[in-house]
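A note from the maintainers: we've had questions about how concatenated examples are separated. There is no special marker in the raw files; a new sequence line simply starts the next protein. For clarity in this README we add a label.
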Amino acid sequence: MRIIELTKETKKDILTDLLKRSPSNYGQYEKTVSEIVESVKADGDEAVFAYTKKFDNFDLNADNIRVTKEEIEEAYGQIDKELVDVYRRAAGNIREFHAKQLRNSWFDARPDGSILGQRVTPIDKAGVYVPGGKAAYPSSVLMNIIPAKVAGVNRIIMTTPCSREGKVNPGTLVAADIAGADMIFKVGGAQAIAAMAFGTRSIPRVDKITGPGNIFVALAKKAVYGHVSIDSVAGPSEILVIADETANPRYVAADLLSQAEHDELASAILITTSRKLAEKVSEQAAIFTNELSRKEIIQKSLDNYGYILIARDMEEAVDAANEIASEHLEILTKNPFDTMTKIKNAGAIFLGEYSSEPLGDYFAGPNHILPTNGTAKFFSPLNVDDFLKKSSIISYSREALEKAHKDIEAFAESEGLTAHANSVKVRFERS
């Protein structure tokens, strides 16, 4: 891995480089995605079937589009029972963590007869997209569906690509069953997003779409936003490690590569105050890369978006981390909890040498659907709130309104909205 001194110029260059990975910068695909979305919107199932034949080489139709109970049972038979138990334990951790996020409706009644409050209700239908291309991710199935179930969503619709034989990855199906998906459809790509956004004869329209995917899926989510809600327009995976001289270079290198193996656009960055550590991590990363099964992908990721940055001190390291606002942030310092208090921007923060990033990906409980491409400055991980909506409650008695009506009328009239003012004024007209 390349080793660079951290300066204002190198930080700026790296940020510019990383932002090139954003789905917003892939305009050359937008026309294709727009055509798919509009076609599905206009022609429904027929367009979905045609695109599935074109992209996945499977003759989809109304009779085979939905995954059956028998297919789910078959999937259980194809997965090692111990792995199924792992899925269930992970699901339990995820459910327990997200249950703590639940909010209750609240009401504040005052002596003057006014009642203010907030009613919290779940969305009716959630759509979950699950990738099925280069790799299948049962973990993402759990991370998307379980928060929706905890929130109380009535129906959860899942779409995922199938093979040319019409089969869905068995791990994906088992995870979906454990998590509680209500309906699963064998549709992938932008056409799946459009189908959930607008509805077809086979696939119900949903209120919100969540889940990761390739550039076509990301751009399709962007295109349908407004017709439905979405979680985010996710970019490639990324990890940033802050480490000092106390860190174990093998651990650091292993953790950096855990994200580099996702795809060629993944980003892996180490910021350290120790040049000695930097050199050892670079050496160890090269050794690990040659040993790992996805070494070609890892090497391209490191060549394009891998950096080891040497900071003058921990303050400079933290400042750079806050600017980059990484999806995953590991802190491997002498006192990681102290360093953590200075972090403002990160999707998920992992503290200490036994809290490696895959712990969050698979098992600990917090969600691994995280903001990418610097959006951790204003976005949060997927959570129960994403599947809830809040309605304000307002109820005033005559006594309460009488105290406020002149203020309301004055405010409305200052904006030139006399009908607004009149709506309050008429209630205090003298007969």
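[label: protein 2]
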Amino acid sequence: MPIRCITIDDEPLALKQISNYVEKTPFLQLVASCCSALDAFELLREQPVDLLFVDINMPDLNGLDFVRSLSSRPMVIFTTAYSEYAIEGFRVDALDYLLKPISYAAFLRSAEKAQRQYQLLQAASERTASSIFVRSEYKTLQIDTDSILYIESRSEYVRIVTDGGRPVMSLGSLRSYEEKLPADRFMRIHRSYIVNLSRIVAVERKQVVLPQGHVIPIGELYEERFRRYLKSRSLA
């Protein structure tokens, strides 16, 4: 799967350039371009990504403080015209640091570094994500991820529906499950639902059909990404 990216810069020309670089790189996918860190912060609440290209010197909330504020941090590549920020950038575990003006060759070297890191993270996830442990009703349950049909957000709780037994209710957020489950097998297709991609029976209009008659809506914010997934696996 491509590496999902957000580009963030308050300078329109710089934002357009870095976004164009992302779009011309085959293993990257541009999810959004944001002209401020505050806009990106709101977007990340609904749609986590794998990689951020972040300008440092921005009004209201600079790139360094923005990255520090993230409770769940994607890979980060800083872009800036000021070389004195380099040390601070690496102190927040940035993957790389690009100094403006940025050539595509320099961008590609950083992107390939991100690709290598992403592949390592994916491999580790595949080794460890065959099951998850969930706290429910005063006990901890182990759930085989292959058995999960979908996960539903219900206020401060999540409802995990499997193909065996009754649903499991647990305190937590859908975002936390989205981060734990392997991204190549599970996808958030609605603000309230994550589905197991391998258990999809059919896609009808703006709904996903799962075993046992479960029908899950596809949200507008998530439809484009889901359609790209379907297209990448279509033989027609």
